[in-house]
């Protein structure tokens, strides 16, 4: 429940007891003015426009502002197409029209920036804090501060290794299952190619080490790898979830290993970098190429790469978390309990499918 309700009621009682009217000046601490510089989603709601209105307009504007649920979102950054889609999902959901004011912060993939943003949200007395943590550890102190301030915290995309009492719930993909699904797909693909018993040399472009997606996808694929004695993991290195780093690491792999059969890219953007490196080395990849390559996220650019014949498959990590978080907040506003772990729906796609038709219907 929002903490502002009590303060609004007290403010109304005090105003009623005054003999002389204060107009708009009676509510200097309105939440829409708490952090105007940080607001990206709803600047039009600021009460700074009130002086040009008539004498009753400031009070009406303030009341309207008090009705908005203020959400602070500490985003990882903008390292990938998936992250961009995730950000847009929140910005398009948490609008004034839907009853929200969103304060958005891009941490540029630095934990210290996210911690600073969360503390800023606490100081601004937001109603809810949403965090997509860059790594899993090191959050206890700042989440304790949020809890002491009575602000519910919702985790998006990535998990935190903290006591579950410090956050309301988590929304995201089942990363271990994604990795297992990829391994299962590879086994069937190799079998269909008549290579089921062949020795298969694999390299992995890992995401940011310690991030939930990296941990889960690595673990999930390793579970299937262990079932195949003829599969050999030659190397694993982080590509930091970026295309540039993915290309750099793939270039290193190609120099170190002459016979790479499979590239596991733990997100689409690293796969794009790997494809560039493979082509630059005079090799080919994809269904008709020298190297099998698949990725995770399944953004539209991955569909383009599959259609072009450069990428074999993409395993979906649904970035559209905004509507699910909206549902959660609405339940919490009603005093209802919510499930601690909430997985979003996900699928996989490969070149055996009608990718053009599927892509045309996708939002990301």
Automatic annotation (TrEMBL):
The keyword Transcription does not apply. It is found in: Cell envelope. It comes from the Bacteria. Residues 77-314 form the Periplasmic binding protein domain. Keywords: Signal. One of its GO terms (molecular function) is carbohydrate binding. Belongs to the bacterial solute-binding protein 2 family. This is Periplasmic binding protein domain-containing protein.
């Amino acid at each position: 429940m929002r903490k502002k309700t009590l303060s609004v009621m007290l403010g109304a009682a005090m105003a009623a007891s005054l003999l002389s009217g204060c107009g708009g000046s009676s509510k200097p601490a309105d939440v829409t003015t708490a952090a105007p510089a940080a607001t990206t989603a709803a600047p039009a709601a600021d009460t700074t426009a009130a002086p040009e209105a008539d004498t009753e307009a400031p009070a009406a504007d303030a009341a309207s502002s008090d009705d908005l649920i203020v959400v602070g979102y500490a985003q990882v950054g903008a390292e990938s197409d998936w992250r961009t889609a995730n950000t847009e999902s929140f910005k398009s959901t948490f609008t004034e029209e839907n009853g929200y004011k969103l304060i958005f912060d891009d941490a540029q993939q630095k934990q210290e920036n996210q911690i600073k943003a969360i503390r800023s949200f606490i100081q601004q007395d937001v109603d809810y804090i949403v965090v997509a943590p860059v790594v899993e550890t090191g959050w206890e102190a700042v989440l304790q501060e949020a809890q002491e301030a009575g602000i519910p915290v919702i985790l998006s995309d990535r998990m935190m290794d903290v006591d579950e009492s410090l956050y309301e719930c988590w929304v995201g993909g089942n990363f271990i299952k994604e990795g297992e699904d990829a391994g299962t797909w590879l086994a069937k693909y190799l079998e269909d190619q008549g290579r089921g018993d062949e020795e298969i040399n694999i390299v992995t472009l890992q995401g940011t080490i310690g991030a939930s997606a990296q941990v889960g996808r690595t673990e999930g694929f390793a579970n299937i790898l262990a079932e195949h004695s003829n599969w050999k993991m030659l190397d694993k290195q982080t590509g930091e979830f970026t295309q540039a780093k993915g290309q750099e690491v793939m270039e290193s792999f190609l120099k170190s290993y002459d016979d790479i059969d499979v590239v596991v890219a733990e997100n689409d953007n690293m796969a794009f970098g790997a494809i560039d490196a493979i082509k630059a080395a005079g090799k080919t990849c994809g269904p008709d190429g020298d190297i099998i390559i698949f990725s995770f996220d399944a953004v539209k650019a991955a569909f383009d790469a599959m259609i072009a014949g450069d990428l074999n498959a993409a395993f979906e990590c649904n970035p559209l978390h905004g509507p699910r978080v909206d549902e959660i907040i609405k339940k919490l506003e009603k005093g209802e309990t919510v499930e601690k772990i909430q997985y979003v729906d996900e699928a996989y796609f490969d070149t055996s499918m009608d990718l053009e038709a599927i892509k045309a219907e996708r939002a990301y």
